Amino acid sequence: MRNARRLRLRFDEAAGVLKLTCPWRTSRKSALAWALDQRDWIDRQLANVEPGEPFLPDAMIPIEGRDVRIAWSARAPRTPQRTGDELLCGGPEEGLARRIERYLKRLALETMSKEVAEFASAAGVAARQVSVGDAGSRWGSCSSQGKIRLSWRLILAPPEVRRYVVAHEVAHLVHLNHGRDFKALEARLLGPGVAEAKSALRRVGPRLRRVGRG
Ligand SMILES: [Zn+2]
After folding, report:
1. Where are the alpha helices (DSSP H) in the chain?
2. Residue 188: partners with Cβ closer than 8 Å, 6 or more residues away
């Protein structure tokens, strides 16, 4: 398309290809650099086409970066319980997926509320609210009112990846931008490993989005 006025990415699901459209004058290099920046969007498209990993008896799901088997037995207690590499789940098979999701959301909220408090106190601030959700596109957000919202799916990720997102959002309590001061605070809160955690999130992100789906 010779007259394209802006860069555009389109995912052709049937053909399994990404199509990049760019204005006539854009250099190949800058068009590709732009496309690489759309990584989150691309991951989401891919997560939608790859088969989900539903919560079913004997399925393996990642919890805090470790593969855990869903061990279902109708006689076990209804509330899932984690023992080593197994998630013991009882009650009727119907509703099992819902109970597991509820368990993971609660675990995510508990774990990350503590981490928010820990990082916030190191930054000398406090969050007004911490909540978990499943806002498809974002792993976390922080409002100007000091409310932090995190994806419950982060509890599936390795702890260093999860902690990176939490530290990132807590740093936004102080700086609502990604400027130099923000980056310095983020690095101080998390310690070394920001770049590694960031690229690990990119790597594991698509799978985290498939867990419990389909
Ligand atoms: Zn940010």
Report:
1. 28-37, 39-49, 96-123, 159-174, 180-190, 194-210
2. 122
Q: Check: CB of residue 31 under 8 Å from CB of residue 22.
A: yes
The sheet with strand 81-83 has its strands ordered as: 60-63, 66-72, 86-89, 81-83
Q: Two tokens at 213?
A: 């789906």
Exposure on the CB side of residue 135, measured as CA atoms within 13 A? 12
- Which 8-state DSSP code applies to residue 212? T
Q: Residue 60: which H helix or E strand, with range? A: strand 60-63
**Residue from 189, 194, 168 nearest 122 by CA:** 189
pTM of the predicted protein model: 0.80
Residue 28 Cα to ligand 1 midpoint, Å, equals 28
Q: Determine phi and psi for 4, rounding to 5 degrees.
A: -55, 135
- Whole-number Å distance, alpha carbon 92 to ligand 1 midpoint, is 41
Phi, psi of 52 (to 5 degrees): -75, 175
Instruction: Give the H or E element holding residue 9.
Output: strand 8-12
Q: Are 151 and 138 in contact (CB under 8 A)?
A: yes
Q: Are 63 and 48 in contact (CB under 8 A)?
A: no
Q: Give the three-class secondary structure for 110.
A: helix
The pLDDT tens digits for 1-57 are 445 668 888 877 666 678 888 888 888 888 888 888 888 888 777 767 778 899 999
- Distance from the CA of 75 to the center of ligand 1, in angstroms? 45
Query: In angstroms, what is the span from residue 16 Cα to ligand 1's centroid?
Result: 31
